[in-house]
Amino acid sequence: MGRLRQPRSKHEQIRDNTGFDRSTPCLASSMALLPYSLPKSVLFNLDPEAAHELTMAGLARFQNTPLACLWGVDRVQDPVEVAGLTFPNRIGMAAGLDKNGRVIDGLGAMGFGFVEVGTVTPKAQPGNPKPRMFRLPEAKALINRLGFNNEGLDAFLANVKRAQFRSKGGILGLNIGKNAVTPIENAVDDYLICLEGVYPHADYVTVNISSPNTKNLRALQSDEALDDLLGKLQARRQELIKRHDRTVPMFVKIAPDLDETQVGVIAATLQKNGIDGVIATNTTIAAAASDVWQYRGSTGTVYVGGRVLVREPHVEQRRQRHLEVREAGEAGAHRGRDRLRPGQVRPCRGRPALPSRPPRQTGGPRPRRCPRRHRSRRRCAGHRRRAE
Fold it and tell me: Which domains are delineated in the chain?
């Protein structure tokens, strides 16, 4: 007769948002198993966009596998209701990191309450010319000018359909935009195509009209253009509500570079067209490089595309002193060491310098040794007699 197995303890089986049973307490996902410093040391030695693509490829390859425990953590349960949606918690991944929806489950395993992917356009497009991503390590920041690079709506929807994030309780947002080659007069058509495609698969839809990296896109934030765009999108949404028998909230993503008058006009337009919410904000273009560098570290220099944008005054002074020192022949001063004088010996690190021993005499007659080979002449009787 078989023996009944005792129920597993909470440490023996833990099922989290990675979708896999974890059989040991050490794998409980209170924190990721892979320390951030380890991949950072590798990725920061690569080109920024190459590091981004490598990360996306790794997440896409290992999401929904046992290796997802390397970065997976338990989702914090702090529900909040917005626009009729119950978000598991208030922290989410914004659009722009995963433009093609390739790693929805990989991002969801990190504990986010919601994940937004995109921006997607009707047709595939390469985005802006490279290089288009630049690090500011001292400011812990990144400059991007990608420009809606994505594989198009069809590839985007195929990735979204494969994702399991929604079935595990996560909120999925899909971000839509227009192609760069589409004239601004026909921008509404691109948004309508994208809205109809993503509507059945989204918990909410974001209308991106504020990216500074797509030419003339921000013109859609003007009063007449925005009213026309949102009016047609709202009319199409009403049709989709009847067709799919579900209401999907629609948000609008605005720019941070708006004055109070523009914000007031946009708010009135959004209310007029029944928009459910605002996502604030997109990338800024207002801050000059010197303003961005107010959080600078010790180097004080911003390089973009191999060109120096900003060099702080104290850094420039230090650079000039360094050049003067080198010209004066004081080599090694920039390393914090004084130049040695002729004949001077650098002491060993970690111990004080000892006085040098006197040089050994090599010339002259050698002293006579005692016939009895006494080490001391005082102990030799013959030597005593000579001394008397």
Answer: 75-286 (3.20.20.70), 287-323 (no CATH)
